[in-house]
């Protein structure tokens, strides 16, 4: 059974979001120590690792997340998710046929990104989805091909409509975090709020305080 409480402090990161592999693991380990609730490993874009390099990093990510008892979700790579025994996999709307992906995912948890009404309608009757990611809520520097931002109102609309637990994503910062969480969404998913934080532990403490 999928536990929606893991969506509360959802951290997403790939080596392209950091200054190299060493920095990637420093940021990840600090985030794990600071008690993120789930981690998504997302190699994406021109600087992303692939093949054996990606597998090598993913195996280390698996080891670290297991050490901290934090569930691991892999972005858009079902084979890798199975190979390293991740807890789940996440798909965008352009990551191939969703029904086929869900079948291949087997017993992995499945997340799907939703950006607007028509994307929601497209998945509404599909079985086997565990949660949706809604966004981008605000402008983001972390995703080159992001859809138009939907704002807090758009987030509120899709969150209330969703039959699944949902997590907000895109441009979420310590400044707008409380407005995001006030929509009733289960949690927030962030890259830069943590990867660019001067004090990851303090950022997580603040984040958790808003959920009390
Ligand atoms: N999907 C929609 S926006 C986004 C993803 C992966 C990037 C989120 O990064 P940030 O830095 O939290 O805006
Ligand atoms: Mg994707």
Describe the overall structure.
- Pathway: Cofactor biosynthesis; thiamine diphosphate biosynthesis; thiamine phosphate from 4-amino-2-methyl-5-diphosphomethylpyrimidine and 4-methyl-5-(2-phosphoethyl)-thiazole: step 1/1.
- Mg(2+) binds at residues 76, 95.
- 2-[(2R,5Z)-2-carboxy-4-methylthiazol-5(2H)-ylidene]ethyl phosphate binds at residues 140-142, 171, 191-192.
- Belongs to the thiamine-phosphate synthase family.
- The chain is an alpha/beta fold.
- It has a single domain, classed as Aldolase class I (TIM Barrel).
- It has helices at residues 21-33, 51-67, 78-83, 98-105, 117-123, 151-161, 177-181, 192-195, 200-209, and strands at residues 9-13, 38-41, 72-75, 88-91, 109-114, 131-134, 166-169, 187-190.
- Strands 1-2-3-4-5-6-7-8 form an eight-stranded parallel barrel, surrounded by six helices.
- Helix 6 (151-161) links the parallel strand 6 (131-134) and strand 7.
- Helix 1 (21-33) runs parallel beside helix 2.
- The radius of gyration is 16 Å and the shape is globular.
- The model has no long low-confidence stretch (mean pLDDT 97).
- 4-methyl-5-hydroxyethylthiazole phosphate is lined by residues 12, 135-136, 140, 142-143, 146, 169-172, 190-193.
